[in-house]
Structure formats: structure tokens, C-alpha cells
Design brief:
Metallo-beta-lactamase, Chain A
């Protein structure tokens, strides 16, 4: 599996193109549709994964769905379970705190998780915006701690990290 990060929008949101063979998933199509489309190239889009519905994560969502005619995986359409989409297998993990609709996508075989604005390098997503709840965030962090330490976390902004690093260096852990 190959992961391409496309930084989009004024808040420099990480849109990810996850590629396997000639298929891809789009994770958090924030904005700048043309930039995302260029990164996709001739790949077949088999799904769009959305970690939460803040504007900087879904600005190009309608255009992506209209162009690629594919399924949307978000808090409204998913339960906490495993999904198989073409060559991809992932689990949906609900982790409210930053927003009520925050979810992560865990690719167990690859030991990677796309966490949106749940976890950042040495920090967490804001809980003071509408739908945010620090108590729920603490519960979500406790849930995350049960995953493998060597799991790589791909956030909605900034650089990737590992769960082990965050357990040792993130003051919220």
C-alpha cells in the first residue's frame, strides 16, 4: 500500500491518497479538487473516507463524489466494524472529542491509522469548537492506547507520528 499526502487549503489540511494496485481511497478531501485529482491520476477511486465534517476536511467532498461516483465512509454511514473495499481492509474507530462525528480508519495489516484531527504530533485536536468535548477526548485517547505501539498515525494536519512516540511525548496521554 502506498500513501500520498496532498496538502490542501489555507489550513494546510492533509488529504491522503491511499493506493493499492490501480485502486485508491481518498481520505479527507479538504479543498483544491484539481490538486487532489492530479494526485489520483488514472487510479480508480473506490471510496472516500472522511474523519469528520469540518470545512477544511470536506471542502472538495461534493465534487469528489460527483466526479468519481463512489461510496462515502463517514460517521453517518459507518459503524465501528471492519470494511473491505476493493483491495483495502480497514476498521472504523469512533473517537469523539474534537467533534462528535470524529472517526479514525485503522488498517491493521499495515499498522496505520488515519486519525484526522483526533491526534497530532505531540498534541490533540481542539475540543473548544462546536461539538468538541474534552471528557470524550480523554476517553478516546484511552481507547487508542490499546492499539499497537508501532502503529503509524496519519493526522489531518502536520507530520505523521507513532502511537509509541505519542504515549511518551504527548502531554495529553
Amino acid at each position: 500500500m502506498e500513501i500520498k499526502k496532498v496538502i490542501v487549503g489555507e489550513l494546510e489540511e492533509n488529504c491522503y491518497i491511499v493506493k493499492e494496485n490501480d485502486c485508491c481511497l481518498i481520505i479527507d478531501p479538504g479543498s483544491e479538487f484539481e490538486k487532489i485529482q492530479k494526485a489520483i491520476g488514472n487510479l480508480q477511486v473506490v471510496g472516500v473516507l472522511v474523519t469528520h465534517h469540518h470545512f477544511d476536511h470536506v471542502g472538495a467532498l461534493k465534487q469528489v463524489l460527483k466526479t468519481y461516483h463512489t461510496d462515502l465512509y463517514d460517521d453517518n454511514s459507518c459503524q465501528e466494524k471492519e470494511y473491505v473495499v476493493a483491495p483495502f481492509t480497514f476498521q472504523v474507530i469512533k473517537n469523539p472529542g474534537h467533534t462528535t462525528d470524529s472517526i479514525s480508519f485503522y488498517f491493521e495489516k499495515e499498522k496505520i491509522m488515519f486519525v484526522g484531527d483526533f491526534i497530532f504530533f505531540e498534541s490533540i485536536g481542539r475540543c473548544d469548537l462546536e461539538g468538541g468535548n474534552f471528557s470524550k477526548m480523554k476517553e478516546s485517547i484511552e481507547k487508542l492506547k490499546k492499539y499497537p505501539d508501532d502503529m503509524i498515525l496519519y493526522p489531518g494536519h502536520g507530520e505523521k507520528t507513532t502511537l509509541e512516540y505519542e504515549k511518551k511525548n504527548n502531554p495529553y496521554f
